[in-house]
Amino acid sequence: MSLPNIRLLETPEEMDLVEELQRQVWPGSETDVVPKHVLITVVHNGGLVLGAFEEEKLIGFVFGFPGLEKTPDGPRPKHCSHQMGIHPEHRDSGIGFELKRAQWQMVRHQSLDHITWTFDPLLSRNAHLNIAKLGAVCSTYRQSEYGDLRDGLNAGLPSDRFQVDWWINSRRVEKRLSKRPRPTLKLDHITRSGLRAFYTPQFSAAGLMIAPEHVPAFDDRLLLVEIPTNFMDMKNKDFPLARDWRFFSRELFETAFAHNYIVTDFIFDSNEGSPRGLYILTHGESTLEDFE
Fold this sequence. Notes:
Layout: E1 5-8, H1 12-25, H2 36-43, E2 48-54, E3 57-69, E4 76-86, H3 95-109, E5 114-119, H4 124-133, E6 137-142, E7 161-167, H5 171-177, H6 187-193, E8 222-227, H7 231-237, H8 239-258, E9 261-269, E10 276-283
């Protein structure tokens, strides 16, 4: 597939296209669609709405706005990237990466160095994009961040989210977004090092990964955490199991972050047709450059 045409969106007619694409990406809840008057207000006040086009068809978008974050030295400016959506027929085609790369370029021109956004930590493809390919890191877990969501993808489970930090001027991020990016990690790179996940995956009769009963001891410098690669399918087929994963992962990541661990990488490996997804958590006393 050729690269999409990515451009800034500013007009009411363009925002109509973004509204309609939201309905296709997150069906079932009109109240969760960000309306065009909000999007226009965003772009007229320092925010960005970027669209990816195939000819004149909008197939992806990302939008965000300037914000403030609390620091020990007082408020600090950042860019809050609130939403990215890819048309269902174009997922896993690299459009999300290209949209974020364009956002990275635009925000740097605004003299900001920090972008944050949230995503569901149990969605492995999102984790692979955000952590492995873009170079974001995470040490913040937010319980039920958006309350009860009613769209077809999120309804029924607490809207727990990672809030990631994308330090866009860092060597880590620049290496991933360069013309010759760092290859993403594969499982055999890790197994050769001797690192193993803290539990051996067990599966239900339907072939769905069962959530562990206990979190690890948190006494190693590196922690490897495996998650299901088919969480949305699991939610449809075995909702109680999906709920088990939500509450297990909440306990695991909140405890890990309290113990000064940081999510620094993600492995998404087809493993001869049987996909596996694993987070790498690094103890905060280690440097990120150890894992570049």
